[in-house]
Write a structure and sequence with these properties.
By secondary structure, the chain is an alpha+beta fold. It contains 4 helices and 9 strands.
């Protein structure tokens, strides 16, 4: 099993977002955070989070990149439970049962993004089209001989496409594509 964790290659997330996720925390897309806002009117750091942030589940902060990491069933259950608690405490979910169902769906979506090798980095780009939020995801590839030490040692991979359509979250209009 694989899941996503936040990663910070430099301190830029602390300048880009109101709250930056802590490196190494479990991550989900987090598009649901924009459910009740008018994304067309977002400005500044909120707009940056909408356009290109993964949600760190523990801190409720944002990360520009997420890394695919190995995970256990216990990790997955713990992530679902943590996200469900956050949905009740921070997002006003009506009860734990509803929050857990939503968390399971969000974590399953995150798992669907993890078809690439361990340590691959994933970036998200969100847009608002005809009132619907659309997400596309890109895998970043290390340049040959490089480690995860420098943000500018990566290049986008455009030829790695995962299936989309089945990964739709109807409530958000989410139709992810991964390149």
């Amino acid at each position: 099993m694989k899941l996503l964790r936040t990663i910070a290659l430099d301190p830029s997330d602390t300048f880009v977002f109101d709250v930056a996720a802590e490196p190494g925390e479990w991550a989900v897309s987090g598009a649901f955070r924009f459910w009740e806002c008018d994304a067309a009117k977002l400005e500044g750091k909120a707009r940056a989070a909408f356009r290109g942030g993964f949600l760190g589940v523990q801190s409720w902060g944002w990360s520009t990149l997420a890394q695919i990491v190995p995970a256990t069933e216990d990790d997955c259950r713990g992530l679902v439970d943590l996200l469900a608690r956050q949905l009740v405490d921070r997002f006003g979910a009506p009860d734990m049962a509803a929050a857990k169902a939503a968390a399971e769906e969000e974590v399953a979506f995150s798992q669907s993004l993890c078809s690439h090798p361990i340590s691959s980095l994933i970036a998200v780009h969100r847009t608002l089209n005809d009132g619907e939020v659309r997400e596309s995801f890109r895998r970043l590839q290390l340049r040959e001989g490089q480690g995860h030490g420098k943000a500018f040692s990566f290049m986008e991979m455009e030829d790695d496409v995962l299936p989309d359509g089945d990964l739709k979250l109807a409530d958000l209009g989410r139709e992810p594509t991964i390149r």
